[in-house]
């Protein structure tokens, strides 16, 4: 079966700064993979390059999605093909209500589906009718962002730090709904804390350091090693950590 995502030799810059320095990464169809790494290692940059955020410029390498090269394809085209990103730090959008965004998204999935998600994630009416992310707490931003991505029901989820700054109760809510949505789907779950992996079963983990994927293998073995020896040890990528 052809991978849903295949990245080869990907190099990219933003504001003249190199953020990706030769990334190789493959996610087979129907699998959830985790992307780990220290702060400023390039994880969020990779997420945005995969979606085609215009601020990032690809210098070399390729991105193939669903068997088609999309390295130079616009963001809108990748979204139409079934890719969606849950941003680590979603922007504030004045004059646009969360309910407005959900109404647009529900044209694909149906208002009933979106209403169920809103209820399950415990997103109240007051939040729905506020400007998107304006004055939202960290937890509210994460719930609103998760709701939007889940409402899209994409084929490939890119979840950038869904567990960052989320309390235990809301993490459980999101973890449950994300787990349900990912059944039969593919995903790249980016996490620094790894708390979300308690709810999402990752088939393989990749460790990103200094703009490159330095190691990959069994998620539990990699997490145990990182906790015991730190990220630097992953650069040696011992065969014991392979899947």
Helix and strand arrangement:
Layout: E1 5-14, E2 17-27, E3 32-36, H1 43-51, E4 56-65, E5 68-69, H2 75-80, E6 83-86, E7 93-97, H3 98-109, H4 111-120, H5 125-128, E8 131-132, H6 138-152, E9 156-160, H7 168-181, E10 186-190, E11 204-209, E12 212-217, H8 219-229
Parallel strand pairs: 3-10, 3-11, 6-9, 9-10
Antiparallel strand pairs: 1-2, 1-4, 4-5, 7-8, 11-12
Helix pairs in contact: 3-4, 3-6, 6-7
Q: CATH-wise, what's the superfamily?
A: P-loop containing nucleotide triphosphate hydrolases
Class inferred from helices and paired strands: alpha/beta
Helix content: 25-40%
State the end-to-end CA separation.
19 Å
Give the helices and strands as they follow along the chain: EEEHEEHEEHHHEHEHEEEH
Percent strand equals 25-35%
**Shape assignment:** globular
Structure in a nutshell:
The protein has helices at residues 43-51, 75-80, 98-109, 111-120, 125-128, 138-152, 168-181, 219-229; strands at 5-14, 17-27, 32-36, 56-65, 68-69, 83-86, 93-97, 131-132, 156-160, 186-190, 204-209, 212-217. With 243 residues, it is an alpha/beta fold. The strands form three sheets. It has a six-stranded mixed sheet, sandwiched between helices. A four-stranded antiparallel sheet has the order 2-1-4-5. A two-stranded antiparallel sheet has the order 7-8.
């Amino acid at each position: 079966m052809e991978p849903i995502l295949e990245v080869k030799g990907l190099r990219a810059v933003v504001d003249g700064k190199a953020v990706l320095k030769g990334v190789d990464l493959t996610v087979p169809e129907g699998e959830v993979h985790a992307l780990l790494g220290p702060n400023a290692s390039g994880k969020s940059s990779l997420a945005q390059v995969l979606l085609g955020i215009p601020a990032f410029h690809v210098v070399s390498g390729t991105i193939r999605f669903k068997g088609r090269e999309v390295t130079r394809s616009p963001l809108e085209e990748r979204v139409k093909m079934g890719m969606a990103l849950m941003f680590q730090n979603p922007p504030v959008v004045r004059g646009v209500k969360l309910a407005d965004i959900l109404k647009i998204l529900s044209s694909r999935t149906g208002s009933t589906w979106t209403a169920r998600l809103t209820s399950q994630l415990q997103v109240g009416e007051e939040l729905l009718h506020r400007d998107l992310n304006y004055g939202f707490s960290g937890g509210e931003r994460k719930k609103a962002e998760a709701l939007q991505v889940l409402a899209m029901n994409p084929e490939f989820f890119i979840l950038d730090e869904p567990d960052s700054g989320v309390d235990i109760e809301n993490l459980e809510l999101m973890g449950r709904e994300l787990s349900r949505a990912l059944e039969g789907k593919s995903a790249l779950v980016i996490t620094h804390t790894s708390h979300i992996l308690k709810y999402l079963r990752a088939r393989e983990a990749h460790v990103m350091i200094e703009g490159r994927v330095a190691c990959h293998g069994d998620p539990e073995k990699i997490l145990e090693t990182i906790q015991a020896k730190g990220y630097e040890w992953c650069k040696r990528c011992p065969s014991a950590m392979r899947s």
